[in-house]
TrEMBL record:
Residues 32-127 form the Phytocyanin domain. InterPro entries: Cupredoxin, Phytocyanin-like, Phytocyanin_dom, Plantacyanin. CDD domains: Plantacyanin. SUPFAM superfamilies: Cupredoxins (SSF49503). It comes from the Eukaryota. One of its GO terms (cellular component) is plasma membrane. GO terms for molecular function: electron transfer activity; metal ion binding. It comes from Salix udensis. Residues 1-31 form the signal peptide. This is Basic blue protein. Pfam families: Cu_bind_like. The keyword Signal applies.
Length: 127
């Protein structure tokens, strides 16, 4: 009898592990990857690119650009509106940056002189 109970407990533990794995995998299956700016990449006048798209937390934005003349800075709403990089903002410089969206508002700018003011910024709302 004791052996039978042990086997039943093992089956329950295994089933719980399988269900947990399925829940984790299901969450990742729904995440999407977007290349910011489409084929043109992260460049001037990209601020209208997000319009009509529906983003979710966990989606990945890929920023492709020439790192000798651009960058990507994750900013707050104030930094987005003013095109000023706040203290402590994360600056990306690889030319092929992959950034996972957080739930809520996500703001990105290029802080090279006059680029943000020329529309090199995006605001993304992720559900």
């Amino acid at each position: 009898m004791v052996q039978g109970r042990g086997n039943a407990d093992l089956v329950v533990v295994n089933m719980a592990a399988v269900l947990l794995c399925l829940m984790v995998l299901t969450g990742h299956v729904h995440a999407a990857t977007y290349t910011v700016g489409g084929s043109g990449g992260w460049t001037l006048d990209v601020d209208r690119w997000p319009k009509g798209k529906h983003f979710k937390a966990g989606d990945t934005l890929v920023f492709t650009y020439d790192p000798t003349i651009h960058n990507v800075v994750a900013v707050n709403r104030g930094g987005y509106s003013s095109c000023i990089t706040p203290a402590g903002a994360r600056v990306y410089k690889s030319g092929n940056d992959q950034i996972k969206l957080s739930k809520g508002q996500n703001f990105f700018i290029c802080n090279v002189a006059e680029h943000c003011e020329s529309g090199m910024k995006i605001a993304i709302s992720a559900a």
